[in-house]
């Protein structure tokens, strides 16, 4: 077990007890000053203060429910493309937050663009699944940690890149996560997070509300259809309210937020990032088509037929022409990438 640890795995760590350097040796890892040492579980360094806290996600069913396997090959390429457009020829070291089952991690390991990968999650079960998935692939390139992203044990200015894919909207205090990400990023480095954005979801709520009222007027609205349309209509306001509420109430909610782009831009500036961009990729859909796809997705999740939406094709077409084109929103996707430059 100890032999799997590499010198660079601990060179970035500071002791949570006394803030001294943590070093690795053949027998494991330890603080030079106070002899504190973390538990190492199957090659995963456990740096959690609260070992009872875990993910709300269904670890065993997560990959299938989110079509993870189909995304693996392309996902790391998206992050590479973002960074190349920012002028990066390669990234020396990466800190990945909320790695889950290793969907993005696997791609990062396969890419020569990313050199050292320091991947993390709060869940031991997810990290064990990640280790099983990546196996012995690139053992000299990967270090695995269990930690709380809001209180991570890395030195200030340790990483060229901090990233997370679909993680911030699960975290009740995601602003602290971004502050910590800023702290451990080197000057000139980047933090990149793929997240759901509110701009497109607002329109799905608007169209769902219109359809709900029209269906009620027709007298053809059954209970599953009513519940789905009501949830869609209310979702943007509920998610926005989450941002402004007492977030202790959100601890048992999996998907807590959809992020307004302007809110994230203002947050970026307040934390101290030099610049902020929201980037969308490979969109060949109009605003109306994106909105239709979002609504259909909810109906598919509850296994309810959405064929009736064809009766409302004119609404999605009007949305594209009246809002998408003049507001230049046809290139914004429901899931986009926040790029913070330090």
UniProtKB/TrEMBL annotation:
Q: Where are the transmembrane segments?
A: none
A Pfam family of the record is Methyltransf_11
Keywords from UniProt, A to Z, are: Methyltransferase, Transferase
Which top-rank group of organisms is this from?
Bacteria
Do you know which Gene3D superfamilies this protein is assigned to? Vaccinia Virus protein VP39
Is the Transmembrane helix keyword given for this protein? no
Q: Name one GO biological process term.
A: methylation
Q: Which SUPFAM superfamilies match?
A: S-adenosyl-L-methionine-dependent methyltransferases (SSF53335)
InterPro entries, per this entry?
Answer: Methyltransf_11, Methyltransf_Superfamily, SAM-dependent_MTases_sf
| CDD domains per record | AdoMet_MTases
A single MF term (Gene Ontology): S-adenosylmethionine-dependent methyltransferase activity
User: Methyltransferase type domain location, by residue?
Assistant: 96-193
Q: What is this protein called?
A: Methyltransferase domain-containing protein
Species, as recorded? Roseovarius lutimaris
Lineage at the top is: Bacteria, Pseudomonadati, Pseudomonadota, Alphaproteobacteria, Rhodobacterales
């Amino acid at each position: 077990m100890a032999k799997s640890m590499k010198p660079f795995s601990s060179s970035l760590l500071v002791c949570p007890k006394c803030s001294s350097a943590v070093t690795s040796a053949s027998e494991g890892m330890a603080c030079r000053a106070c002899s504190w040492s973390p538990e190492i579980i199957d090659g995963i360094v456990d740096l959690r203060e609260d070992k009872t806290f875990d993910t709300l996600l269904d670890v065993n069913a997560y990959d299938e429910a989110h079509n993870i396997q189909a995304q693996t090959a392309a996902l790391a390429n998206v992050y590479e493309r973002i960074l190349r457009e920012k002028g990066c020829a390669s990234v020396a070291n990466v800190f990945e937050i909320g790695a889950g089952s290793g969907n993005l991690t696997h791609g990062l390991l396969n890419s020569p663009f990313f050199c050292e990968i320091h991947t993390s999650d709060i869940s031991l079960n997810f990290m064990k699944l990640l280790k099983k998935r990546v196996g012995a692939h690139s053992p000299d390139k990967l270090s695995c940690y269990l930690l709380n992203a809001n209180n991570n044990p890395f030195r200030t200015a340790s990483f060229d890149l901090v990233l997370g894919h679909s993680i911030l909207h699960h975290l009740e205090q995601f602003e602290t996560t971004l502050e910590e990400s800023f702290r451990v990023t080197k000057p000139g480095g980047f933090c990149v997070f793929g997240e759901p954005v509110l701009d497109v979801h607002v329109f799905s709520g608007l169209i769902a509300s219109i359809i709900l009222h029209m269906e009620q007027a027709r007298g053809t609205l059954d209970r599953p259809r009513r519940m789905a349309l009501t949830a869609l209509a209310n979702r943007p306001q509920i998610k926005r309210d989450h941002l402004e509420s007492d977030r202790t109430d959100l601890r048992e909610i999996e998907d807590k937020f959809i992020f307004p782009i302007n809110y994230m831009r203002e947050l970026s500036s307040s934390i101290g990032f030099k610049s902020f961009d929201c980037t969308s990729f490979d969109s060949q859909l109009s605003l109306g088509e994106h909105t239709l796809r979002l609504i259909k997705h909810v109906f598919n999740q509850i296994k309810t037929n959405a064929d009736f939406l064809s009766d409302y094709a004119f609404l999605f077409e009007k949305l594209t022409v009246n809002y998408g084109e003049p507001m230049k929103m046809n290139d914004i996707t429901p899931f986009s990438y926040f790029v913070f430059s330090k």
